[in-house]
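Why run this: before we spend reagent on co-expression, it is cheaper to look at a predicted model of the complex and decide which construct boundaries make sense. The entries below are exactly what would go into the expression plan.
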Amino acid sequence: MLRTRLLTAAGALPLLIFLIGYAPEWSFSGTVLVLTGIGLWEYFSLTRAQCTLSPVIGKLWGMLVAFSMVSGDMRLIGTALSLGFMLIFILSLRDRYPARGIQTTSLFMLGVVYIGFLFPHVLWIHRGPEGAEWVFFILLVAMLGDTGGYVVGRAWGKRKLLPHISPGKTIEGGVGSICGNGVAALIAWQYLLPNRPASELVVLALLMGLLAQLGDLCESALKRACGAKDSGRFFPGHGGVLDRIDSLLFPIAFIYYYNTLWN
Amino acid sequence: MLRTRLLTAAGALPLLIFLIGYAPEWSFSGTVLVLTGIGLWEYFSLTRAQCTLSPVIGKLWGMLVAFSMVSGDMRLIGTALSLGFMLIFILSLRDRYPARGIQTTSLFMLGVVYIGFLFPHVLWIHRGPEGAEWVFFILLVAMLGDTGGYVVGRAWGKRKLLPHISPGKTIEGGVGSICGNGVAALIAWQYLLPNRPASELVVLALLMGLLAQLGDLCESALKRACGAKDSGRFFPGHGGVLDRIDSLLFPIAFIYYYNTLWN
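The model came back. Tokens follow.
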């Protein structure tokens, strides 16, 4: 299991570094759109039993929002969010049971905001000043956090964190994850964003790490609520795209608004 | 009942005309914020039994989004939507039952987008070119549509429109409502927006009327889903604010994006 993981990482890392740091913008945007599409696919497959509208409508709406995010035009984003919301709400009127119609509308809204709206924020970070560096920083925090959590949880993990949502996670692992975040901040300070004060990067990394772990738990709660173990079924053994990006979604939104509002 | 309605209208209309057409911008914004606040209050009271987080959190989040809409700053709106969403999702992890936590998150999201995000779009219409005229046009379409639906439904109403959601509405009333919309378009062409082609105003009025009726049904579905008859309990006899603005929400969003994207 660990070996497969490491091999996958060794194969994917150079590609990721190339896409973020060196490839033309459109190829990064394209990759993000494809990942968003698969994430939406997984979300609407997961929640299929809870919703009475066709998942295809949800995927289309989510992709419409994602494309509007690529455009960066606030009028298009507002249109995609508002008109899609109205359309779903109206379509759900056909449900014989209003409670089920409302549940469908609200779960569609949740998925579209969670994946179609939050994830493409990474494009806006990437286009900003030192964009590639910030995206690398987010990935570094997530990867070293995961590694720290895995190693420490394996070696000393005893007390369960939130057993009703994610039985494998321990408090010790969570602490190891935070240590990994700290290391990521120091590496970022040395190699990625040297003109930023180390204290700022450490605080950001710790907050991102916290959001990553909580975001991971949110996705687990979503899967539990739908009675599934992995988000994706068409990548056997690897889990789904949603399982991979779940810990990135919250830090991405956080860093984008931090950078836009504070700087 | 009809008499009370007419008296209320006679009292409220001059105030409304003054606020939209002649009062300073801040008083119109303030009125919209107060109505949004009461609407959110009603929504989160309605859905209280379905959610396990305190309604206060939902109202605060909704008001935060509404205030960001008043500012018109896209960065603030994005922050209010994204960070609030993350916070609610994270708080709902405390629920013992993940399915209930997800339901809470999604219903909170629905209410905030439905009222806190959609309704304040009327401020953006009002600030645009011929803003007051467009707001009057929306109100006129809604009011004459309501009147046409009431009169025709009373006189000839037989076939039920969607009995599982709104038992009082008939297909004949719906047709009467559409006639009212058409009359509103002609009045708007004569007195409010004479530089627009009549055909455009008629098409817009008919689309708005359709959205108003469907939006009305959406709010009814919401109340049915929550087992309530009126949205508000603290305005005895009058229904709630949500019952009044439900038919305005969709036309407002529609007209704002129509004007922004087409003109």
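The beta strands of chain A are 160-162, 166-170. Chain A is about 75% helix and 5% strand. Bring this page to Monday's planning discussion.
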